[in-house]
Amino acid sequence: MKKPCLYRSVDTRTHDVCHGSHRAYRSERNSKKETRALSNRGSMHSHHRHGFDYTPLFRFLLSKVGQPWDQVFSEANARLDRPEPIFWVVALHESDKQEYVRTDENSYYSGLWVDEAGLLQKVNPLLTPEHMESFSDYYTHSFNGVVFAQPLSRKR
């Protein structure tokens, strides 16, 4: 039986969804030729890949902490469209380790790394949602899928 993919397709055609470029082509297309000639408008097909949610991957990796990295990587890679998202949260080198990683606008996951024995580990196993501080009073944040809501400390 084939295991499910570790990513989901998400809606990218919703009205007012902006992915990366904040410059609107529609405001440039009818401009004067001189201005248009100086424009730095790029290709309509950017190098960004939008429309994928890798939350299932991040949860899968967290569930495999303590297991041999080669086996974890092999299974994850077989269930993905590309291997790059794995390395958004997993550091292979000591210098790349981070306690937590921002994977979305308001989603954070524990940073992972591969230890000397070749096992997948959390960078800081003691880090919990209670230790996280929200960066905005207006949005809901999550850490490893658990919502945390601590108001920002305000300076007066």
How is this fold's topology laid out?
Layout: E1 8-9, H1 33-38, E2 52-53, H2 55-63, H3 69-78, H4 86-89, E3 90-91, E4 100-102, E5 107-110, E6 112-114, E7 120-122, E8 141-143, E9 146-148
Parallel strand pairs: 3-6, 5-8
Antiparallel strand pairs: 1-2, 4-5, 6-7, 8-9
Structure description:
A hairpin with a 5-residue loop joins strand 6 (112-114) and strand 7. The radius of gyration is 20 Å and the shape is globular. The termini are far apart. The chain is an alpha/beta fold and 156 residues long. The model is unreliable at 21-25 and 34-48 (pLDDT under 50). The chain has a domain at 53-148. The relative contact order is 0.13. The protein has helices spanning 33-38, 55-63, 69-78, 86-89, and strands spanning 8-9, 52-53, 90-91, 100-102, 107-110, 112-114, 120-122, 141-143, 146-148. The protein is built from 4 helices and 9 strands. The chain has a 4-stranded mixed beta sheet with strand order 4-5-8-9, with no helix packed on it. The protein has a 3-stranded mixed beta sheet with strand order 3-6-7.
